[in-house]
Amino acid sequence: MEDRTTTSRGNRIVKKTWQTKLIHSDAAAPEGYRSLVTPVYRGSTTIFPSVEAVSDEWDQYRVGYTYGLYGTPTTLELAARICELENGKRTIVVPGGQAAIALISLALLNAGNHMLMPTSAYSPNRKLAKVLLSRFGVETTYYTPDTGAAIGELMRPNTRLVWVESPGSITMEVQDVPAIAEAAHARGALVALDNTWAAGVLFDAFAHGVDVTMQALTKYAGGHSDLLLGTVTVRDESLYEKLGLAHQVLGYNASPDDCSLALRGLQTMGVRLEAIERSALEIARWLADRPEVERVLHPALPSCPGHELWKRDFTGASGVFSIVFKPGPTQRQVFAFVDALELFEVGYSWAGVTSLAVAYTIRGYEHRIVRLSIGLESTADLIADLDRALRSLSS
Ligand SMILES: *Cc1c(COP(=O)(O)O)cnc(C)c1O
Question: Residue 75 belongs to what H/E stretch?
Answer without folding.
Answer: helix 73-86
